[in-house]
Amino acid sequence: MSASWSEKHQLSHIRATTAERVSTDPSLSAFWILRIGFVVLPLLMGLDKFANVMTYWPDYLAPWVVAILPFSAQTAMHVVGVVELVAAASMIIKPRYASYVLALWLLGIIINLVSMGIFLDVALRDVGLLVAALALTRLASKYDKPWGAKHGTR
């Protein structure tokens, strides 16, 4: 037996599509804006660590860091690029956890830049990104289920 029109109508309101939920739920749309942003940004920055199109990245590495590395500053930037690409992929897979890693990564970048005493404008921008990453950790705790969670639990 088929459900009545009113039952179908009620079910259609209950089972809203993701797009409808994003357009009507401000915190869910904030989650998706931050999630997408933290996929695109590390992806582009990570790729550019190999190309140096946006800037010459080794210039952003503090001299004390270069002094303790067993390899060149450019090689270090290649390692950083790989980490950023992994961060982007992790954000696609599991933002609940990746957002914490990204926040710690940004904190490391800020410490590196502040220790140089230059590029303080970039460090300040990264403080803003750190705050956004921390906001994403809170939103992800609501909208991204933990690994191993059963359907409907968060």
UniProtKB/TrEMBL annotation:
Highest taxon in the source lineage: Bacteria
Membrane-spanning parts: 28-47, 67-93, 100-120
Keywords per UniProt: Membrane, Transmembrane, Transmembrane helix
The keyword Transmembrane is annotated on this UniProt entry: yes
Keyword Membrane assigned: yes
Protein name: DoxX-like protein
Organism the protein comes from: Glutamicibacter mysorens
